[in-house]
Design brief:
mainly alpha; binds fe (ii) ion; 67% helix
């Protein structure tokens, strides 16, 4: 593992290192009952499915200028203007740049989220009571180190545009790490952060369709992440619906609602508009209100909602908060036990296809004149 950090990741204003105190109970399982067959099966699957970053084709030439030029030539700017209804008409180049910066921002947050997953899952190794869950968590920790490595290499050696951790993601990761209750680590990481990532990865594949290296990276990481989310769903099975007092359950509801707002805020992407030198207030308001961006944010919850429902956490309070955010339409989708793999959100595919078809028609009409 040796690569050139041509474009180092920008350091956040808070500094290059940050530390948070957490007080946890580390649990030994001297019984080794190993009764939970579904966790043991996942552990076997995880070991067999392991891959190495060296298997990726790092000789791929990722040239952001060339991608920009190609997208401009294909009329991508016009498409973005139609799709996004921006607060002012963007030039072809601006529109393509906005799209690429949004992708780079997303990829950077994936990197930082992966580091969060690495640390949070290491904590699960210590805190979860059952040996078989410790086994799987240890396997996941190795996956996460590889994910950090791969995204870091892609961003610094290949893509050349990257962003520091978004403050809201930073706060959420701190919350997950500092909480002493083992199930809350799972709830925050495996159900919320990784559930969101799984849906967002599907969108990344669509948005960067012409770039083969990120396609390969995303496909491999998605396969790992679907196991990680399943790990959370299996481990928390019955805990909330059967074993908690109403006070304990209310605390989990609070955590879900607060974390959901933090996850949503980071998708307003104010750092992108700052970097582009655009009016941040105008553009954050746009990101908050425009239908495409709202739809995009909502779709990142398409795996979280059915999983919360399976765990018995789509309670009246959570339901009310999710209803306000327009997220309840995902409640009938398949959860991570019914459908471990994640396909790209159909709504987004349809929306993109519709616009592409319109664009092709418009081009044909212009050519026919
Ligand atoms: Fe990961
Ligand atoms: Fe993960």
């Amino acid at each position: 593992m040796n690569y050139a950090q041509r474009n180092p990741i920008p350091i956040p204003a808070s500094g290059a290192f940050s530390s948070v105190k957490s007080t946890i109970d580390t649990v030994f399982d001297w019984k080794y009952a190993l009764e939970q067959q579904n966790l043991l099966a996942l552990y076997e699957k995880g070991k067999a499915a392991s891959w190495n970053a060296t298997e990726l084709d790092w000789s791929t030439d990722v040239d952001i200028e060339r991608i920009t030029a190609q997208r401009q030539a294909a009329g991508g700017g016009g498409l973005m203007n139609k799709l996004l209804s921006p607060p002012r008409e963007l030039s072809e180049r601006e529109a393509v740049e906005l799209n690429l910066h949004m992708n780079s921002f997303m990829l950077s947050q994936f990197l930082h989220g992966e580091q969060g997953a690495l640390v949070a899952t290491a904590k699960i190794v210590q805190t979860v009571p059952w040996a078989e869950a410790k086994f799987y968590a240890a396997n996941q920790v190795a996956d996460e180190a590889r994910h950090v490595e791969v995204y870091h290499r892609y961003l610094t050696e290949k893509l050349g545009i990257s962003y520091p951790v978004h403050p809201s993601l930073g706060v959420l990761l701190d919350d997950i790490i500092t909480d002493s209750r083992w199930d809350v680590t799972y709830l925050g990481m495996q159900i919320l952060v990784e559930g969101l990532a799984l849906a967002a990865f599907g969108m990344m594949k669509l948005m960067m369709a012409e770039e083969s290296l990120i396609q390969d990276i995303t496909t491999r990481i998605m396969a790992d992440e679907s196991r990680h989310v399943a790990f959370g769903v299996i481990s928390l099975d019955r805990l909330y619906s059967k074993e908690m007092t109403s006070k304990e359950l209310a605390e989990r509801e609070d955590f879900v609602i607060e974390s959901t707002h933090l996850l949503r805020d980071r998708l307003l992407m104010h750092q992108v508009f700052e970097r582009l030198g655009w009016d941040v207030d105008v553009w954050v308001k746009w990101a908050s209100d425009t239908p495409f961006m709202q739809g995009f944010r909502q779709m990142t919850f398409s795996k979280i909602v059915p999983n919360l429902k399976r765990l018995g956490l789509l309670t009246p309070r959570v339901r009310e908060a999710y209803g306000k955010l327009g997220l309840l339409r995902f409640e009938h989708m398949k959860d991570s036990v019914e459908e471990p793999e994640m396909s790209p959100p159909q709504e987004l595919v349809q929306l993109l296809m519709q616009f592409l078809a319109q664009n092709a028609q418009a081009q044909a009409a212009t050519a026919g004149r």
